[in-house]
Amino acid sequence: MGSNIRSFQNSSDDSPTNVGIWIPVTDPTRARNFYTVVLGWKFMGGGNACPIDGIKETHYFTKGRTISGCLCLMDEAKIVRDADTADKSRIGVHTVFAVKDIEESLALIEKNGGHIHVGRTSMGPKSGFIARFIDPEGNLMGIFAMN
What is the CATH number of domain 96-145? Predict the structure, then answer.
């Protein structure tokens, strides 16, 4: 790791801290291309062998100067999917990323192989907007912007 990149870090207090997101994938090249274009992630080299049962490789990425998470190469049978395309009101745990513009991001998502799950939706007065999408690997994710 370069000296200007910080690794996952423990919190300085006892509160729970998000140390990164692990995204299950079956095609790391497709996922890397998608997230590089859509969210501007920078990937660190190729995949690394992983000793965790079920994960073949990890592909770490940064946003800014900190490792933000990794793509986890897995067999499809080991991946738990939580997107219900038939009933969009049924959702599971998913990560929501801040973006500058919801509509611009949705266009990038579709152009790069993702699918819109729920379009731009108001969170209420002065609370911003969200949208949900399914990435090319089948993972449900969200985006948020104030505009």
Answer: 3.10.180.10
